[in-house]
Design a protein that fits this description.
Two copies of one chain form a homodimer. By secondary structure, chain A is α/β, with parallel strands linked by helices. Helices cover 46% and strands 11% of the residues of chain A. In chain A, helix 2 packs parallel to helix 3 and helix 6 crosses helix 8. The N and C termini of chain A lie far apart (47 Å).
């Protein structure tokens, strides 16, 4: 597939960014590398003149940026989502190295929209946000000074995306995934499954929302690793719907 | 060799930087990747509070930065010098891709100090400055928007340096150079050769300083590609000194 098209399918999602200047720097970084799709989840201050200044000639990306109130909203339609994270979380996808992770991201982009998710400058992504992602990536830094600027982190990963998009790739780089027989499920389809699952587990008494423990994160982690196809979502939801009928919680008999 | 030691041997040389904020951003970018040696050639405004602000925890690099009045001064003792350039110059080293060029830079750092040279934000490096460098590198960008921020360019190349330093490298990655039998010549030794050569060529009438044409740049390009060893410099200068004696321009008979 045309490298420019692949790059256009990569969303950059910035969550709860504090400094508008960093949003501008991210837009500039994206555009220099041929990315164009910017999502802002609850930006603290946006639009803002400081964002425009730092974006220089990439103000068009800011103008077209999509602002959402949750990460989930920003990921609707995306079928593969990578979180930037400085550390491995107890529950969450394994941290990958940039080039390998980006190679996989580009390979997934052949099938549809994908996303790179960046957290707040100070606190990063929440554990809950990380669990919306199928993979996590860390940028190796000096252990004595790992304070990578947000714009710089966006620059580095967008650069790796461009290098990967234009690199000669073997025809079937699938990073361990068997070729999909049905389209990859999108984020919203997967979220629909999780909601359905939670509802059924609650109805069946397996899951107690008042004492949730780590059950839901563990399920997210499992399905995140599995990379669900749309057909599989349909099958799983069919199973859940059937369970509802049997336990009397379904809509209809 | 220890990757940290290799990284410590890479100088980042910023030439005629206009905005002190970019110097700070460069320092921060360097430190996150484990580089520490910053040279500033005729910075427009430095030190400056904006540089400190953008450097955050990398102010120590700014404090230890070495300020020089020429690129040549900043390169004393460096044996391999790479220029960042957006375009191929008529005369000048061939533009390489970042990863290959950085791999070579790291390989050269096994032998001694090396440098990455960045030009002014607006005009880049002059042709004369490029000719002080043995290699040139370009960061592939969107042809419709190649306006990479200086701090971002430093970030990308320092990132590639860190990745290369910590990558498993085959024992003899020499990027086409045969192993050196004598230490690589340093920048000042090479400049000494050029000055000597120019003087002899002028004395012999081969070179007319009033109509210089492209002779000197072409010689720089040639020797830049050749990657001179110290012994070779000694030999060449011996040849020149002998010529001087013969033509009566030497110090003594």
């Amino acid at each position: 597939m045309n490298p420019e098209v692949l790059l256009s399918r990569i969303r950059v999602v910035l969550c709860r960014t504090s400094h508008p200047g960093n949003i501008g720097a991210a837009a500039r970084a994206m555009k220099t590398m041929g990315l164009s799709s910017l999502y802002l989840v609850q930006p603290k201050q946006f639009p803002d003149p400081e964002a425009d200044t730092r974006a220089t000639g990439a103000v068009d990306l800011l103008q077209r940026a999509i602002i959402t109130s949750s990460l989930s909203e920003a990921l609707v339609g995306a079928s593969y989502v990578v979180a930037l994270s400085a550390r491995q979380r107890d529950i969450g996808p394994a941290l990958g190295a940039p080039r390998e992770t980006v190679a996989r991201l580009l390979s997934e982009a052949e099938r549809g929209d994908v996303a790179l998710v960046f957290g707040n400058e100070t606190v990063g992504l929440s554990n809950e946000e990380i669990l919306h992602c199928q993979a996590a990536v860390t940028i190796p830094t000096n252990p004595d000074f790992s304070s990578l600027n947000l714009g710089s982190a966006v620059q580095v990963l967008c650069y790796d995306c461009r290098m990967a998009a234009f690199a000669e790739r073997p025809p079937h780089v699938d990073a361990g995934v068997t070729p999909f027989s049905s389209p990859a499920a999108t984020h919203d389809e997967i979220e629909g499954l999780y909601a359905h699952l939670e509802s059924v587990m609650t109805a069946t008494g397996f899951f107690n929302p008042k004492q949730p423990g780590r059950l839901l994160p563990k399920l997210r982690r499992l399905f995140g690793r599995a990379r669900l196809e749309r057909d599989e979502i349909n099958i799983l939801r069919g199973v859940l719907a059937a369970t509802e009928v049997r336990t009397g919680h379904g809509r209809k008999g």
